[in-house]
Amino acid sequence: MKLTLKKKSNYIWELPKNGDMLVPGLVYGNKAIVDHLLADVKEGKEWNALRQIYNVACLPGLQKASLAMPDVHPGYGFCIGGVGAFDTKEGIITVAGVGFDAGCGVRDIATPLKRKDVEPKKKQLAERMFKDIPAGLGIRGKIAISWDQLEEVLTKGAAFPISLGYGKKEDLKFIEQQGKIPGADPENVSETAKKRESKQIGTLGSGNHYMEIQYVDEIFDPVAAKAYGLEKDSVIISMHCGSRALGHQIGTDYLKVLDAASKKYKIPIRERELVCAPFQSEEGQQYFSAVNCALNYGHANRQVLAHLIRGVFTKVFGIDYDSMKMIYEISHNSAKLEKHKVDGKTKELIVHRKGATRAFGPGHPELPAPIKKVGQPVLVGGTMGTCSYILAGTEIAMRDTFGSACHGAGRRMSRHQAKREFRAQELVRKLEKEGIIVKGHGWGGIAEEAPGAYKDVENTIKVMHETGIATKVARMKPMVCIKG
Questions:
Q1: Residue of 409, 150, 181, 401 lying closest to 291 (CA atoms)
Q2: Which of 25, 56, 283, 409 has its CA 20 to 30 A from that of 128?
Q3: What are the phi and psi torsion angles at 390 (to 5°)?
């Protein structure tokens, strides 16, 4: 096994096909990003992203290349920022390519407010958000659903809470796949997973999940910005969360199922979480169905949270509920059936995105009319002390990365290391001096998410923009951040 990178262009690096690799690896990154990857290899770290890119390239049915976006860092089996598209007839489906928070994603909502409207009431807004948005490990949500209703959530996604009055039908147009993923069968989700849901719908969770109030700091593409409903200094709501304990349990359950399947179908496994099954096998289809349930749960969870945060804004600012419009919602831990061109032929693929998001280009049939001409919004979270971005998907992404782009800045240090290096109280005081109010449900969670624990988001975005995978539309800076 050789873990060396060959420069193909300023922002694309190849891990040449060697050993058991069936296809090469491709890393999107600048020198700083690549040097960080190579340093992990040089230091002899077993858990490193390049090794994971190599391991994925050895799996049956992988098309074109094992891909890594510029927010790349080690994950479980797949690197975070990893993309793997597998032929549905010859390829596999794996827990590692989705992760333990299937359906984790970002939703952005535009408000009619400007920065100057929010600044005087930031502290009041933060207090109300902290009170009204359920967050933290194991917290229960404000929506109580029965056992039968949970099954409806798993099949109907965001549409189910809307039917109960949580949001508007118009919201569904601006969620990927309208917030309802087909092929979801609750029978393939264990009783344990369903019980672990524990009324968590409408909760933010913990870890890197957040609810953030941002203002548009700079517009780079006025045409796309107008289509997305963005203006200079306009205030938006951004939330990042997923399928909570239910999704984690699905991943845990299917590690065992796919471990047995890997042995049954004699598929060599190089890292525990890379256990897999042929996509068309019984085990593969069961896991795919369970993942779709988790994706639907994630969409429903964000739908309820959107309703709650709209309520906060109506209380604090007296604005109309309907004046807060959806920009878009995308997930970044998923396995989705899509059609893409490979060697000039259109093929149906099962596209795994682990800490990577769709970046569909202009004219794609799944995009709603208001944004179809400019491409899909790509929502990229930065850190609570720097900035976030909205990019636009492109035809280059459709051609080169199966319509995929980065999802965040990318970690540069582990959570444990961040806790050792940063003091949450000091961080909160420092950010408040910079005009950013941070409130969290635990000091440890804030320390883990310190801006210094992450790569420079500007570097990550530059790689996407310069390669044409996803182009810059707007940069947002944080005003208020609520952490789990």
A1: 181
A2: 409
A3: -115, 120
The three-state secondary structure class of 481 is strand
The answer for 435, left when phi > 0, alpha when psi is -120 to 50, beta otherwise, is left
| Structure-token match 């309208």, residue found | 178
Q: Is residue 73 classed as helix, strand or coil in its secondary structure? A: strand
Question: Strands 333-342 and 345-354, how do they pair?
Answer: antiparallel
Catalytic residue among 240, 407, 441, 465: 407
Q: Give start and end residues of each alpha helix (H) in 179-336.
A: 191-197, 222-228, 244-264, 282-317
Q: What is the DSSP string of 91-153?
A: -EEEGGGT-SSTT-EEEEEEEEEEHHHHGGGHHHHHHHHHHHS--STT---S----HHHHHHH
Verify whether residue 407 is a known catalytic residue: yes
Q: How many C-beta atoms lie closer than 10 Å to residue 468's C-beta?
A: 14
Determine if the pTM surpasses 0.70.
yes
pLDDT tens for each residue of 308-318: 999 999 999 99
pLDDT digits (tens, 9 = 90+) for 208-227: 899 999 999 999 999 999 99
Cβ contact 347:339 at 8 Å = yes
389 within 8 A of 328, measured Cβ to Cβ: no
The segments of the chain whose pLDDT lies below 70 read 136-142, 198
What gap in Å lies between CA 368 and CA 365, rounded to an integer?
8
| Crossing angle (nearest 10°) for helices 31-42 and 49-57 | 90
Contacts of residue 48, defined as CB under 8 A and 6 or more positions apart, other chains included, come to: 3, 37, 40, 41, 74
User: 146: exposed, middle or buried (C-beta count within 10 Å: 0-12, 13-18, 19+)?
Assistant: exposed
Label residues 198-237 b or e (16+ Cβ within 10 Å = b). Answer: eebbbbbbbbbbbbbbbbbeebbbeebbebbbbeeebbbb
Name the residue with tokens 């790349």: 72
Q: What is the CATH number of domain 105-483?
A: 3.90.1860.10
Q: Which residue's structure tokens are 């928070």?
A: 101
